[in-house]
Amino acid sequence: MMKNVVKFLAGLSILAITIGIGVWNSRAGQDWLLEHAVAAAMKRPAGLGEPEGLKVFLCGTSSPLPAPGRAQACVAVFAGKSLYLVDAGAGSAQVAALGRLPLEHLEAVFLTHFHSDHIAALPEFNLNSWVAGRPKPMVVFGPPGVAEIVEGLNDAYRLDLTYRVAHHGEELLPPSLGVMEAELMEADTVLDREDLTITSFQVNHDPVRPAVGYRFDYRGRSVVISGDATVTPGLIDAATGADLLLQDSLSLPLVKSLEKASAGSRMEKIFFDIQDYHAHTGDLSGLVAKSGVRQLALYHLVPPPRNALFEKIFSRDLPEGTIISQDGMIFELPTGSDEVIVITP
Ligand SMILES: [Zn+2]
Ligand SMILES: [Zn+2]
Q1: Domain with 250 in it
Q2: pLDDT for 177-207, tens place per residue?
Q3: 117 part of the active site
Q4: Domain CATH number, residue 208
Q5: Which own/partner contact pairs does 199-202 have at CB distance under 8 Å and 24+ positions apart?
């Protein structure tokens, strides 16, 4: 009896493998697999579907120092259905596209400062959200200087816009929606949008001025994005009582080792210079203790840890429970709760 069952199961497995090989090697089989694979890939990831509470999706966690699998600084914040971006570093539009972010709901982009690793993907987000059906122009908020950035990018991409419209038609891509609009938002100003309040605050990223961070408060939940910033009383104030703080962070032992390894080359000075304008990992315990922030997550990693040893050293002196974030990571802050749910990609 047992022998017959084993024989039957073995026969069934051989049949399944034979059918599988047949499907894999036939055009019709490949087309069938392709249709299902593409449909699955187009689905929005779990965690972005429910338009409730505050949510954060990380579309870029790196700094100018490159690392495989990491785009430069970009944080997407969902307040209900509305989507906001803070910064748009190189590669982040691809991470957003792969994460199936609903860019048709993009309300605005907020710039913390105008270093290239925070603005390079603005034109791509503008194009992708235009194609997705955003019903009004992409507004870019920022401190003084934002108009110059937006005007320059609009000029540089004017020909691209004309080609897109010529190819796909004005009905699909109305030309007026393909041009970005700048809105000045000085430090310490507040933007109220129904249940959402966005506050900008000054940070220290000297010699880069202006430089700001942003706080989003929505239905009792809050997220603070530091931008590039050392730990200052202003940052502590802005983060006070927040549920989630996304913080720029630099590991001094790692950067010093890079400086040492570059001795005699042009990079030696660069690795020395960058040490004074990002928050050091050793300063973050004080930041958490004084602000009472519920969850600290590090992004804009200087340098992004590329292996277990780097990560171990990056983690030195960090407050317990700190998350070293990754591209595609989602934080959910449901309304009426103090939970911070972390979804790792
Ligand atoms: Zn930066
Ligand atoms: Zn910067």
Answers
A1: 58-334
A2: 999 999 999 999 999 998 999 999 999 999 9
A3: yes
A4: 3.60.15.10
A5: 199/238, 200/110, 200/141, 200/143, 201/234, 201/235, 201/237, 201/238, 202/234
